[in-house]
Design a protein that fits this description.
By secondary structure, this protein is an alpha+beta fold. It contains eight helices and 13 strands. The strands form two sheets. It has an eight-stranded mixed beta sheet, sandwiched between helices. A five-stranded mixed beta sheet has the order 10-9-11-13-12, with helices on both faces.
């Protein structure tokens, strides 16, 4: 595919931030043996990556607004455009030297997602999408969601509540209903990467609650441009507001929506 100027800007920002994260990943692995541990170092790595992305995008498109995991909301002079950024999705994986983490950058125009980039530096997997133009992996492979039609053939990806975050009782109830019906269940630790992999057909279904807009914005567009259906868990297009996400092809989405109803 030939990238647009807009996607080029986003990709360059993600790749520049990724170089720092990969250097920091090596340091994190060395810090694992220290008494203090790498937690403070990883928080600093997160902030450094976000600063790089912010500066690159602000220079290329001055005046656009920002919504960022670390820096919060920054209102620009251009009220119609907003960057939505997660500089390190999968922080716990990064903290433990697990190479499943990603950078997520999306652009919203007048409230509509129009471009998205998800980059996994450790695998050098670059997922991009532009509204109406399709979704692609590494500029070569057009993405399509998997075409499986039954739960028994499907691999399901999910998030797992932990350490006081989320409704663990509800998750266990849903898991108990789903587990006997599907081919497998996976948990990677990066919601942005989960949605990218679903768009690429690697996962058949994804569901998770209590996510933030920067976790899912780019992934929402990737899934849509790959022909998938993505809503909140009740079937409404309010994922960015509720933080609850269900994604799959249209057939499996309908089956999962019924299964997850209380």
């Amino acid at each position: 595919m030939a990238r647009s100027a807009l996607l080029n800007i986003m990709v360059q920002a993600a790749q520049k931030a990724a170089r720092g994260l990969m250097r920091d990943l090596g340091e994190v692995e060395n810090l694992q043996v220290s008494l203090k541990g790498p937690g403070d170092f990883v928080s600093a790595a997160d902030r450094r990556a976000e600063k790089v992305i912010y500066e690159e995008l602000e220079r290329a498109r001055p005046g656009y607004s920002f919504l960022m995991e670390e820096g919060g909301a920054i209102e620009g002079t251009d009220k119609t455009h907003k960057w939505i950024i997660d500089p390190l999705d999968g922080t716990t994986n990064f903290l433990h030297g697990i190479p499943l983490f990603s950078i997520s950058i999306a652009l919203e125009r007048e409230g509509v997602l129009v471009a998205g980039v998800i980059y996994c530096p450790a695998l050098d997997d670059l997922f991009v999408a532009e509204r109406g133009q399709g979704a692609f992996l590494n500029d070569r492979f057009r993405l399509r969601v998997a075409n499986r039609k039954s739960l028994d053939l499907s691999v399901v990806c999910c998030g797992v509540p932990h350490q006081g975050r989320g409704d663990l009782v509800l998750f266990r109830q849903e898991l108990a209903k789903l587990q006997p019906l599907v081919a497998g269940i996976r948990r990677t630790g990066s919601a942005a990467l989960d949605l990218a992999w679903l768009a690429a057909g690697r996962f058949d279904i994804f569901w998770e609650r209590d996510l933030s807009p920067w976790d899912i914005a780019a992934g929402i567009l990737l899934v849509r441009e790959a022909g998938g259906t993505i809503t909140d868990i009740t079937g409404k297009p309010t994922m960015m507001e509720t933080g609850n996400v269900l994604a799959a092809n249209s057939t499996l989405h309908t089956q999962m929506e019924k299964l997850l109803k209380p």
